[in-house]
Amino acid sequence: MSKLPGLVLGWACLTFAALLPIGIAYFDALALGSPRGIPANRSMTPSVVISGVAGLVLAAFALGSMWRDYRHSRKVSFLAVGMNIALAAAGLLVSVAGYKHVQFASDEAGWADVEALHELNYATDVACAAGVVIVNWPSEDSTVPARYRCPSGYTFGPRAQLPFVPWPDYQEGESLQLAKALA
User: Fold this and answer.
1) Which terminus of the chain faces fewer neighbouring Cβ atoms within 10 Å, N or C?
2) Domain-wise residue ranges, the chain
């Protein structure tokens, strides 16, 4: 009996899990038109953690598959090597993006409207062309600068309590004025 259907199903499940934030962004777009809308307290962090772990497993399986083929026949095709390396690199990229998000995220993290803060002359030192920044303010103490991330690419779950801005599509910065405005 062939193991191929099980392997294909396993790869498909891992790929789906690694791309989970994209799926959630799609369902968010569908929920905008529904009467219930999107829950305000939803965070992207759980899906990002699942995605990061799936990316690591995907990378390990890709490299393990290539190693197994090499050990078995001492010869691996160029196409198989290329596909496995590309899959491993994609899995590692997803994992690094997830790790950096979890490292930045905390109970005090959320988002702020930069345009509104600029109009009110709060946080004028935040240089961000995007309308929203992801903010992590460490305490109620306004003498400690708030760390922020300004998205330069796509933001997953932009209406969530803590959106996901994948690495490396953001610029990081610190702002004392932002910490004072949010305190």
Assistant:
1) N
2) 4-104, 109-182
